[in-house]
Predict the structure.
Amino acid sequence: MPRPAPLLIPSFSRPKSRVAIRGSLAYQSDLAAVIHETIREFDLPVQGKTVLLKPNFVGFDPLGMVNTHPAVVSAVRETFLRLGASAVLIGEGPALDRDTQAVLESIRLREYSGPLSRIFVDLNVDDVERVALRTHASRLSELYLPKTVLGVDFLVSMPKMKTHHWAGVTLSLKNMFGVVPGSCYGWPKNVLHWAGIDPAILDINAAVRPDFAIVDGIVGMEGNGPIQGQSKQCGTLVFGDDPVAVDATCARIMGLLPEKIDYLARAATLLGHIRPEQIEQLGESISKVCTPFAVLDAFARLRSSM
Amino acid sequence: MSSTFVENICLPYLLGAQNEDGGWGFHTGSTSRAEPTAWALIALLEVSSSDSHKQAASKALQFLGSCQLPDGSWPSSPELREGSWVTSVVCLALLARKECAENVARGLTWLSNELPGEARTVHRLIRRIFAKKPAGQNASYFGWSWTVGTASWVEPTSHAIIFLRMMPPQLLSSAAESRRRMGETMLYDRMCVSGGWNSGNPMVYGVPGEPQVSSTVWALLALYEHPDRPEIQKSLAWLQAHSSAIQSPASLALTIIAFNAYGRLDASLIESLRGMYEKNEILWNVPEVAWATLAMSATQSWLQPKSYGKAD
């Protein structure tokens, strides 16, 4: 049975969101323990369910700053299996290169997660189903989306913490561009750019809102992201049951004002929370892990004075 | 060795993945779509030797005919009722068959008339008023887009040029010929600084873009008529330098196809490709198996201009 469309709930009637920050991490640390302990705190309904992890896999990344690190993806996968999920798939539809296996081999996913054919779904070439877009933030009225994404019980957005030269930041909401199939829209999925990146982010997330988000901010990217920026050590993982609240928290960690990020401010009306008083903060405090990220001049207005 | 690989691995997979409706999806059991069907058909026609191949090809032709849209284009997925880059690939597949001449002619008309978003009057006007142009490329050059109304990119432009190059010259209108030349100019303009191509951004905010194997191969095949141009030589050198590090069957098969086309066959790459399939540590995918089949072809007849066509 397909996933029900997410409820679009005004902020004032939406319960508080929960976001957990873990700091002082490295890819060599015992991520499995930290991730398991943190996800368990959320008491997620995954017992006997099919979970889909949607990382951000872009391509060759020798400095570990472009893609969600496979060590994080693998540890999250193990955690959901330990929590009783019946299956945990990894799915991505890279935007710029239709050779998905080349992308996966370049980031060595197989070394961390095992044989790709058993666990990985190439969302670019999955069978698709029409989804009517209800928010009409962009001029798109429908999208054809992968049946795997629409069919799983629990969807987890797992982006990298990065700045973005067109959207300001790319986090768990922008990461959902990757579910739009290249086999329908091309590489890149240029129809989303022409519809407007900010409104398209809203439309996609209103159609397939992630149930949970985990942001890899151990090493992020600043400046001319999402591909050609500079590596940024931040040492954090950010978890939460509301992708909007997770992204707002990440923006604050990056020294940016979420209220000034166009799509985040608009997402706060129907998709989640960005105001601190509406977010229950777990783990480390934002101020303790705050690591200002450089942004292009065009986004200087996003900087906070923290 | 290579024919054994095709007969034992590629063809059984392709024949086994064909759906009842005559089409192929991207994987065994998935819904038929025009693009994987076109690639499977091109591969079958290239190596076709038995009755079962001919029957499969005949069913594929019927499927492709059935999903052509009234305006002559093909959609990327049957549910989408709008043309796409797939039109070039399907026309390339049908070009060898005389009985499909009408389908190809309608596809050609659509391709000749369909302008990418940046070439449309409104967009050009906006660009002129605001003097807005993307860094690192000449915005007045255009080719073909992935989907209707969006921008030109390297791969769809290359596919269209490859198809137009295969057309019998007497059937090409001046408009189509003019579009082809403009597309070639666009491809040269979008080449990466180091040689090779990526999806179409050679420079972003002053930072050179990295080339990719698949885009480089398609552009090289599109520009095949200019082997001595320095851009081509530079791009072949880039591909050569990166070929030993390729770890995926799609990129490897495409690289072999490009080297075949330019007379630079490398037996070690063929051995690597065969090894990848034999180890079975890959994500099986119909177009990729079709490219592997084409990589092993000694004749490469699918890349030869057609005089118009063979009836079967």
Summary: Chain B touches chain A through 46 residues (CB under 8 Å).
